[in-house]
Amino acid sequence: MIKIPRAFVGWDVLVIDDEPDNLEVASRLLKYGGASVVVARDGKQALELVTAHPTPFKFILCDLSMPDMDGWEVLYRLQQDSRQQAVPVIALTAHAMAGDRERGLAAGFHNYITKPLDPLHFVHQLITILIDIREYAEHLKTF
Questions:
Q1: pLDDT digits over 3-32, tens only?
Q2: How far is CA 126 from CA 40, 82, 95, 129, in A?
Q3: 6 in a domain, yes or no?
Q4: Beta strands 59-63 and 111-114, pairing class
Q5: Domain that residue 116 falls in
Q6: Looking at residue 41, which CATH number applies to its domain?
Q7: What string of DSSP letters covers 114-139?
Q8: How many domains are contained in the chain?
Q9: pTM (whole model) above 0.90
């Protein structure tokens, strides 16, 4: 039995990925962690959901390699929206080549998680990534 901390209770989170299995794993683990999860199967749908959502998401997980609109374009468009600029966007990718993480950080992603996601460590990995955000640190340090 996997013990998943309920670190994201009350948090609205957006997960963007064109692969249904990846969406299922990420959203299920986030829900176990207490999050309210909204999923998008592509970048265009993600931007529509961001616009329609009443408040900014607490964070966004975004696949980099998607058809039509990739994660790089999604990030760029979110950065152009003053309401979304402070929302941490974490890249999800199967590309784990040397320099990919640095390229993602330089583009403005808050951090980078490689796929396949590890169910035993995913929520802890997110806590570790997000705890450096001052507004989240107080809450997350208890997990």
A1: 899 999 999 999 999 999 999 999 999 999
A2: 19, 24, 18, 5
A3: no
A4: unpaired
A5: 12-140
A6: 3.40.50.2300
A7: ESSP-TTTHHHHHHHHHTTSHHHHHH
A8: 1
A9: yes
